[in-house]
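Aim 2, interim progress. The first record below pairs a target sequence with its structure tokens.
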Amino acid sequence: MAPTLAVQLRHAADCVRAVEKGQSLGDALPRVPEALRPGVQALAFHVLRHLGAARAALQALAPRKPEAPVQALLHSALALLVSDEPTPGASYAPHTVVDQAVEAAKLSRGTQRAAGFVNAVLRRWLRERSELLVRLQKQPVARWNHPAWWIDRLRTDHPDGWEAVLAANNRPGPMTLRINRRRIARSDYQQRLTEQGLASRVVGEDGLELLDARPVSALPGFEQGWFAVQDAAAQMAAPLLLAGRTWSPADRVLDACAAPGGKTAHLLEHADLDLLALDVDARRCERIRENLQRLGLVAEVKAADAGRPADWWDGLPFDAILLDAPCTASGIVRRHPDVRWLRRPGDVEQLAQIQQTLLEALWPLLKPGGRLLYATCSVFRAEGASQVAAFLARHSDAVAGPAPGHLLPGNAGRNGEFADNPSGGQDGFFYARLDKRAP
């Protein structure tokens, strides 16, 4: 029997409360019973994509802040009521949402006594919905479902595209596969999908975007390493780093912040390389190894801090370096809707400093004539264009090579300053290629 909405709301509210306490949704979801997890995740994603409006609605309906468990439940229920989008996995009438939210309150010791309060607040929403929606549209955080500082920074960074970026962030991203060209041709794999009734379209050099997402276990060839799940924007890294020259097993390549290994694997699918994959987290290094093994690829994987070469570098320079640097993840919000609520304004500058430290540490490890591809899954200029401009000003031996710069999520930049963005539904990203002058 399928779980009731009340049961799913209870667990979704627990996840939302965890995010509001500063925990990632990825840490909260494993605490949900496994059988309930897919439905609760879909519901939690929906809530987090409408949390700004839900918070503003609760403030209007109940100015006195309720206790945290009650607040999280009300935020979850209101997120279903403020949105005109279909509820994930089902379609619930507003009165059903109210009824099931009250039942959800009765399921938890922390909210049992507030069941009547939950009922009163949500029924008031039903009575005053039209008037309240007009009020919410006048509040930027409620309208765009992002923190005020995030909206302000995005408006400054992308004056012609900020609204489209925010709108794209509130829509789920497509499921995109990277076809392992060493195992199967993309055209052959697309034919296999078609034979199973799964429609797809070609993106980039190796990608297929599914028109309807499916669990990887339902797709042909996962265990055989025929494909990996990777967004179209992330699939640009390997072609950008390797473009324009012939590579051999003697070429030393560093993937400096490699986990979970998608870009490492893509590099090896394109060329035989002497590749070192680093990540500071030993557990995440195991994930890299597992992914490479499934795809039939080989690289040296080492747990180390890329910013401290003295701890791991053997003194032999690299022909190419991929630095997919730690960042705010502001470009992948549609896949990780909790990110916007977890980040704080100071995080941008703090992470930009880490990115600068990594660039300065790795640049001396690159051969003259070599290339470094700098990447972040961020739409903020401090982590992209501004970071690279400052690096070029500091290093006279660095030259900007061909790279797309800032990519905006979805089709946000199609008619703005990024008119050459690919037309697909890629995540937000930044790429810059830095070539080291030969003597």
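The second target in this work package is listed in the same format:
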Amino acid sequence: MSRAPDSFPNEPRDASVHGESAPPGYRSLVVVVLSPLAFALVFACWTLFALLGVELRRDLALGSVGFAVLLAMPMLAGALASLPMALLARRLGGRRVMLVCLLLICPFLWWISQAHHYLEFLLAGLGLGLGAGALAAGLVYVAELGPSRHAGLALGLYGAGMVGAGLSYLLLPLISQAYGWRMAPLLYLMPVLLVAALLWLFADDGDAPAPVVGTEDEEAPAARATPMRRAMRLVACLADWQLWRLAITYSFFFGAFVALALWLPGHLTARYGLSLQAAALWALPFTLAVGAGQVIGGALADWRDFRSLRWWVSAFVLVCLFLLSYPPFSMRIEGIHGELTLHYAAPLWGFLGLLVAMGVAMGMGQGSLMRLIHRDHGGDMALVGGLALTLGGLFAALLPPVFVLGGEWLGIRTAGFMFLYAALVVCMLVMLADHARGTRSAR
């Protein structure tokens, strides 16, 4: 296991002022309940543009590529914010960083309700991406203050906050129909402020890490280290392949789910002729399946060190993506007794069944991998967890434009699943190379 920079060591902590009055069970309960709520709300805010797509494309006269770039903005900003915010949470406390990030997205929610130009929506989307700081800080918060015996279950419950996308699927189309789409962003202001208030009132940050005293070059505690020294140590840590091996695999499952959560309502509308409200409801089981899978995967990883699980999960998801990649097609065969014509088009229920099965597997992959990251890099959780979210956010930001450009280039609506299939093959090749490298090192 690599050593973290001295700005985020993993030393034992003394009892804090808050911790002395709060029983450990109470603290764990607060962490496990409030952190997923914050995660769910941030994720729900990120799906705003996807579910307001019809209105936004009409009012702004957007093409497919312009709308895809708009969808990608929160993930791009979130990827850039994840690692710094995770490190800041390790230094200042997860609760403080989560609280600040939740409050930061509030003015951008209000701005979306008032914006009229494409550039305004792009900038507001970048502002919503700052909410990723709450995701990264919450991950560090749960890893440090959650129940140690059931860390995987706690991390799985936290990751299940992704079902916040389902909250948007249910509510936003109704609000948009009843009160107009500009009221929809304002719907989230009150819940975001409420969760921020609950974090401020009932949660605490634990204790600040003890200062590190080392050799003559490290006589000063970490708090007095120059920014250049911290940056150099961070770069040195990031050069260690051990930090990347699990983060890369996690980033595929995280990024693929985020992109699919944004893309599915529009895809179902175009492919099956559904209204946006009906398409959002049909996409809801996929998000619920991913959330349930995260809890199952985390709990299984608590019970046993399922390192082989990532291989089985990846193989199952690969098969599902292969089947989902098939577009409707017709085949004409010259038979003995005449011409035979075969036609294939996946029915809606079959498409949804594959999505749900794949969602459970993707969730299990995320939950078990995050538990493995916690087990292998507990002292570097801010670094490795933040790195995983950064890579996942960059992958998620890449996917909406790739889905659109791939579909226009190939002329096939399922091009997005084809790209995910190819990306997973590359990811599994990286896993195979890492396994071979570890086998050679063991000899």
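Strands lie at 329-335, 338-344. This observation will shape the mutagenesis plan for the next reporting period.
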